[in-house]
Amino acid sequence: MAGRRRAGKEPVGETSGGPVVGNQENPHVVISNQGCTLIIENNKIPGTPLQRAMCEGRRCVALSRTSHDAYNMHITLTICDHPNILNTIGVWADPSDSRKAYIAVASVDNALSGLEKEQLFCIEGQLCRGFSDLGFKVFRDIFSAVQYVNNKYEGGATSSASNSLPIQLFPMKLEPKNIFFKIVNGEPRVMLGYFKKQLSDMYAIRSSRGARRESTREEIQKAHWKEVGRCLTELYNNYEASSELTELAEFLTEGEVTYESLLWQPGIWDARTKMQFIREIYFLLDKERASLKCSFEKTPRGKILKNKSPLGFLPIMNEFSPPLDHNNQEKPIADNHLLDSVIFLRNKIVAHFHAEYETFKGSKVEIGTSVVTRERYIQKRKPDYMITLAKAIRELGWIAESPVTRDENDYMARFSKMTI
Q1: Which domain-ending residue is among 107, 142, 166?
Q2: Reading across the β-sheet that carries 88-93, which strands appear in turn?
Q3: What is the top-level taxon of the source organism (predicted)?
Q4: Residue 309 phi, psi (nearest 5)
């Protein structure tokens, strides 16, 4: 492409008929670079550093930087290949300042800071209960892009691949105003990749004499996760966050983050994922029960769960019909251990709910009939129930990967032999 820079070439540019054209109220900057013309409008995307622009008749956005930083960002983006990383077009020297240049990237529509809170979160009064459907997608994509970049640095996992070029140790800006999104085929797609020269002062490591030293790959990787956590808390600022969101933000900002451990945070699991996770636990128990022809309590896994604390569902359990034994006879309602809690979740919330709804003693309006409203009903009363359950099952090593990594088809294949 004519406007794309090649490694090793300094950014150059010249004005085309003068640096400023258009009317006085809305002047444009026009720059020609090796036959490719960039037209920069006097029209910033609100709340962002990006200016709307045109390149060879196509919409794009431009960012004013020092020449060195613009060139480094362009080269870095050229090497990256991820659906949530900005696509670079080229670098044009600023005709009014020899020290600066414009880097142009494929068009984006807004930044996270420009979205309403209700677009990213489920807000009820002053309480932020969790992500909206868009919020789940946005943050999962952010995590994926950050993990990609972290591994792409020199010495990282991806950079060690035989045919993969590494990127230099330039960190990303990850504040809400510097995380962008665009609409692709009617669907929002979050875009990262605003690379900067060095980490912010709060993450800088200094010598005993106070001199700032260059950041290592590990320091940049850790800073990225911390910045995402700070971004999250900034976005739900002024609201009381749910236990799951609070746990997620604290893990990002204070924990030893790995991508695998991050995916085990229930804060990024939507209601369907949580229900499938409960199904999977039940499947493991039911498989042993069918093989041994015994009750859940007598299976090896059942015995393990009987030794773990319950989730505290007894008040909720009393709103449902009593459980049944293997002879289809009613049993006393009990939440004495984690096994009781898991069986309740599976039999009353995940499966058979429509039969339960008719005799439900609680608020039918509040619990509703959808997966989302049922899960939210439980979460309101036991905000940390899934945090506790996910941690317990992961520690047992029963399930190798986070349920968020599997789609519905994977689950249907695995549970095709289950009766639910």
Answers
A1: 107
A2: 14-21, 28-33, 36-44, 51-55, 58-66, 100-106, 88-93
A3: Eukaryota
A4: -65, 145
Of the ranges 152-161, 205-214, 258-267, which one carries the lowest mean pLDDT score?
205-214
| Contact between 271 and 375 (Cβ < 8 Å) | yes
CA 405 and chain centroid, separation: 12
Of 185, 188, 220, 199, which is closest to residue 111 (Cα–Cα)? 188
Identify the residue with better confidence: 114 or 34: 114
Would the pTM of this model clear 0.85, i.e. be above it? yes
**What is the spatial order of strands in the sheet that 187-191 belongs to?**
110-111, 180-184, 187-191
> What is the span of the domain harbouring residue 201?
112-268
Structural tokens at position 211? 């001199």
> Cβ contacts of residue 347 below 8 Å, gap of 6+?
323
Element (H, E) at 225: helix 217-235
From CA 380, how far away is CA 127, in angstroms rounded? 11
Nearest to 335, CA basis, from 359, 358, 316, 350: 316
Alpha carbon of residue 42 to chain centroid: 33
Q: Would you list the DSSP string of 303-371?
A: HHHHTS-----HHHHTTSPPPB-TTS-B------SHHHHHHHIIIIIISSHHHHHTT--S-HHHH-SSH
Please enumerate in sequence order all residues whose Cβ is within 8 A of that of 251, keeping only pairs 6 or more positions apart, or say none. 229, 257, 261, 262, 265
DSSP 72-123: HHHHHHHH---TTBPPEEEEEE-TT-TTEEEEEEE---EEGGGS-HHHHEEE
Residues 133 and 220 in one domain: yes
Q: How large is the angle between the packed helices 243-254 and 385-396, nearest 10 degrees?
A: 50
The answer, yes or no, to whether residue 290 has pLDDT greater than 90, is yes
Residue 271 one-letter amino acid: A
Together in a domain, 233 and 275:
no
Q: Is the pLDDT of residue 395 over 80?
A: yes
Residue 103 shares a structural domain with residue 129: no
Over residues 166-185, the pLDDT tens digits come to 999 999 999 999 999 998 88
Q: Are residues 264 and 119 in the same domain?
A: yes
